[in-house]
Specification:
alpha/beta; TIM Barrel; ten-stranded parallel sheet; 12 helices
Length: 337
């Protein structure tokens, strides 16, 4: 069955009282549970100017307690910036605290600043990711691990906390390229496809993912999550106006952080025709339109989890709560109970 979830990203601008921000997040996940959402997700970033952001693992723990019916998703943990023993322990603890409701979303990371801060080579991020994740999987099994590798050395190490889910929580690997999709097929349980992929690209990557798993002798995935940018309104026009205002600031920040290059003059012109630009990668419109678009992804891709971004830079808490209520209407139209 399809589950709809929402993502809490780094969108709250500095200067907002942190205590208020925290209480608003708790209110949002509780409202999401009341309106039929299946999961929520938060991610990992440090020094994310001009936004303020909480550390992922305590944040996930508190929100899991606030909404015990929702699945908890990390979206995503940047494995190359951590140590596999520490990360495996934290993931196991979240799985226990959430009652086995955790999905381990993970990825490589892209910000040079973060790699420099942690004295890690961005050039080696794929190798760091693979060696770390392989060790984490062994540690979650409960075995004592001895490993002398390229980046890490362990001698007879066993975790003090093991996950509830056996043999481990499902692993969703963030993908933004063909090599990443192939890596997700070999090493994880599901691809966590980029919100920048349009539907034809997603369909191409679904074929690549399944072929890679078949070649590796692995079964087809039981979960297919995707992330979409999202703007819902009581009218189509309201959704477009709100979406354009939020995305303008978001893309500026992404450009500053080096994800998609600078915001070109063509991009800026497209923002003036946001409805056209958003057509390839957004879920956008009134509740009926949004339900139809989500249903298209479900029928064409067989997705099981649709992650939506409800909040954008500068958007007040009241607007987020309105969007949660409107998304409840979308969920009812989809027949999700």
């Amino acid at each position: 069955m399809l589950e709809v979830g929402f993502h809490m990203g780094p969108v709250v601008l500095r200067g907002t009282p942190m205590e208020r921000q925290w209480h608003e997040h708790v209110e949002q996940v509780r409202a999401a549970a009341d309106h039929g959402f299946g999961f929520f997700s938060v991610g990992t970033h440090w020094v994310i100017h001009p936004f303020q952001y909480f550390s992922i693992f305590p944040w996930l723990s508190r929100l899991a307690a606030a909404a015990p019916s929702l699945t908890v998703v990390s979206s995503v943990v940047l494995i190359p910036l951590g140590h596999p023993v520490d990360l495996a322990s934290r993931v196991a603890a979240i799985d226990v605290i959430s009652g086995g409701r955790f999905r381990f979303g993970c990825g490589l990371g892209y910000r040079a600043l973060e790699f420099d801060m942690f004295d890690r080579s961005r050039r080696h991020r794929a190798s760091l990711f693979e060696e770390s994740l392989e060790l984490m999987i062994r540690l979650w099994s409960g075995e004592r691990v001895t490993h002398h590798g390229r980046f890490f050395t362990l001698d007879d190490v066993a975790l003090s906390t093991l996950p509830i889910q056996r043999p481990r929580p499902p692993i969703w690997i963030a993908t933004n390229s063909e090599p990443a999709t192939r890596r997700a097929a070999r090493m994880g349980d599901a691809p966590f496809w980029s919100p920048f992929f349009d539907l034809p690209t997603l369909m191409e990557h679904r074929v690549i993912f399944e072929a890679e798993r078949s070649q590796a002798g692995l079964p087809p995935p039981t979960e297919i999550p995707i992330a979409r940018e999202y703007s819902v309104g009581r009218t189509h026009r309201q959704a477009v106006v709100d979406g354009a205002a939020g995305m303008a600031k978001k893309w500026e920040v992404y450009a500053e952080h080096g994800l998609q290059g600078s915001l070109s003059e063509d991009d800026k012109k497209l923002l003036d025709d946001f409805d056209t630009m958003a057509g390839g990668t957004f879920i956008i419109g009134d509740p009926a339109e949004c339900a139809d678009q989500i249903e298209l992804y479900a029928s064409e891709l067989g997705i099981t989890h649709m992650k939506l971004r409800l909040q954008y830079p500068g958007m007040p808490h009241s607007k987020v709560m309105e969007r949660i209520r409107l998304t409840g209407e979308v969920i009812r139209r989809l027949g999700i109970t």
